[in-house]
Structure formats: C-alpha cells, structure tokens
Amino acid sequence: MIQLALIGIGTGNPDHLTLAAVNTLAQADVVLLPRKGKAKSDLLDLRRLICERWLSAKANIVEFDLPTRAAQGDYQQNVRQWHDAIAHCWQQLLATHCPQGGRAALLIWGDPSLYDSSLRITERLEAAGLPINVTVVPGITSLQVLTAAHRIPLNAIGAPVHITTGRQLREQGWPDGIDRVAVMLDSGGAFTTLPNPEHYDIWWGAYLGMPEQSLMAGRLDRISEPLLQHRQHLRDTQGWIMDIYLLARRG
C-alpha cells in the first residue's frame, strides 16, 4: 500500500507550515516536486526551500514536469484531460519510486481543499486500482493570508461569504443575497464587469506570503483602473501572477 500525503504548504512563506505538515514531510520516503515551467520557477524554489529546511540531506526528492492544460477549446473538457494526464504522471512516479509501497508526499500550494484539484486526481488513481491510501494535511489558505494582510474579517457579522472564480463572476454576475464575495483564479479584471462599481469595496493581494507580496484596497470605482495597471506591471515583471481579492457591497 502506498501512503500518499497531500500537504498544504500555505501561500509562499515557509513559516506557514504547520507542525503536522513538518512531521508528515519528515516521515516521507519520497517527496514529489512539480516543475511548472520557467515562468513559475518561484513556486518550485519555495518547495525546494521547504525541503531544505525540514528534510535531511538524504531525503529522496524527485522533481517532475507537470502536464499543462490546453488553452483552447472547451474549458471543462480541457480540465478533465489535464487531470487525466496528471494522474497518469503521478501513477508512473509512484510506481517507480514506491514499487513496494511506502510513504510519498506532494506539497500543495495553499490547502488541498480550496480550489485545488489534487484530491480529484487521487480519485483517478484509486479508480485505476492503484493500492493507495490518501491523507490530507491542511494548510493556510490564500483567503486567510489575504484577510490577515489587510487586517479585515472575511465575513460581516452573522453574514455568509461566497467563494467563486473570476470566470463565474464574469459569466454569472454578483450572486443574489450575498454581500461579500471572495474571487480566486481570475485571469484579470473580472470585477470590471460589475455594474455600479461605486457600490463595492475591494481588498486585493498578489504573491501572498511571498517576499513579492503586493496589496491594494479601496472603493472599486476609484481603484479599478490603477489596480489593473499595477497587476499587469507585476505580471510583466515576474512572468506570472497569482492573486485573490475580496469584494463587499458598501454600506
């Protein structure tokens, strides 16, 4: 039986690892580190830093190239095919490095439960008959780091929060009966589709937890254009961007 641990590692600060994450990582026979191309080498460097800090020099660390998702065509179909390709990659890695079973670990950005596909991919491994037992070590999420950085609560008193994606905000608009919306995986500027931007406040953050962390906040109609320009500058400078924001109805 292969024991596969999905370890949430937070959003970019090695100090965000929990003791449970450190202990699980130290017990792993092999640690799998995905490479996502030169543009996102910072993400790999962070995982390497975590391994250097918490693992011995004899630890078996295996880097691999993560399959990429097709950019054109049907989005849902592209995601399913992408997950299939990743599952096949993981299966080969586990068969190679844990042929007699053992403990393997994958370091998951943020937390495996929040807009991450690792758990769905492990279901494919189980369906394929791989003798695997999956455990999850929760991590600090980008939502937690965002609200902490801005020193704000996520929700109003006794009120719900809606967590969605930039794609959904663009296509579905503001959800009924909700005063606060957290938006993840926005390719850029989904908030510009909201009518009457003067009715909203925004708290935005990029590279949360990393040395490059950048924050902006204010009334949406006043900050929208400067935020988009700043975001594009960061993307051009770093070659990639990972951001998240919280929107709230004013008043």
From TrEMBL:
One of its GO terms (molecular function) is precorrin-6A synthase (deacetylating) activity. The keyword Ribonucleoprotein does not apply. Keywords: Cobalamin biosynthesis, Methyltransferase, S-adenosyl-L-methionine, Transferase. Residues 4-222 form the Tetrapyrrole methylase domain. Pathway: Cofactor biosynthesis; adenosylcobalamin biosynthesis. It holds the Pfam family TP_methylase. InterPro entries: 4pyrrol_Mease, 4pyrrol_Methylase_sf, 4pyrrole_Mease_sub1, 4pyrrole_Mease_sub2, CobF. GO terms for biological process: cobalamin biosynthetic process; methylation. The keyword Transmembrane does not apply. PANTHER family: COBALT-PRECORRIN-2 C(20)-METHYLTRANSFERASE, PRECORRIN-6A SYNTHASE [DEACETYLATING]. This is Precorrin-6A synthase (Deacetylating). It comes from Terasakiispira papahanaumokuakeensis.
